[in-house]
Amino acid sequence: EEEEEEEAEEEDVPNGINGHDAPDAVNGEVNGIGGHAENGEADAAGKPSLRLSFTEYRRLSNLIVLHLRKAEEDDDESGLKKSALINWYLKEMESEIDSEEELINKKKIIEKIIHRLVHYDHILIELRESGLKGSSEASETEQEAILVVNPNYTLED
Q1: What does the pLDDT read at residue 139?
Q2: CA-CA distance, 89 to 60, in Å (whole number)?
Q3: Residue 69's pLDDT is what?
């Protein structure tokens, strides 16, 4: 009876080894390790790359810093909201954007640049209004951060 159960279990496995045909996928490895391509060609074909050269990153970060400093000088407010900065950038790049997909990619890139400028490079500072727990201000949905340039940052060319 035990032999019959083992044979039934072996029949339940589709296409041989771990659901893969043995000649194409020996031990579950296809084109590298664990079904992932070694050089990332399979992933690159599926979606466009969001990579940015460092010089392009510096150009965009300087553009953002200059815009924020100009906004600080023009207004009595201390800075711009993150969404306003993203919208400003997308309007600046409007002529270069041909499709909705490019718009989404540009938006993702600028969001990642802002995130890096705030959390890693510490060039921008996020300011949030926070109240005491339980107060009406704190109970509202999370307020969007206001971005300001770090006062110790000097612009490099």
Answers
A1: 40
A2: 9
A3: 92
CA-derived radius of gyration, the chain = 26
Q: State residue 100 phi and psi, 5-degree precision.
A: -65, -35
- DSSP string for residues in 42-91: HHHHHS------HHHHHHHHHHHHHHHHHHHHHSSSS-EEHHHHHHHHHH
> Long-range contacts for 88-92 (Cβ within 8 Å, ≥24 apart)?
89/60, 89/63, 89/64, 92/63
Q: Per the structure block, which two tokens stand in for 130?
A: 């926070």
The residues that bridge with 124 in the sheet, in sequence order, are 149
Which residues of the chain register pLDDT less than 50? 1-17, 24-26, 30-32, 35, 37-38, 40-44, 138-141
Q: In what order do the strands lie in the sheet with 146-149?
A: 80-81, 146-149, 124-127
Rounded to whole angstroms, the Cα distance separating 58 from 53 reads 9
* One-letter identity of residue 90: L
Using one digit for the tens of pLDDT, what is the confidence trace for 49-67?
788 999 999 999 999 999 9
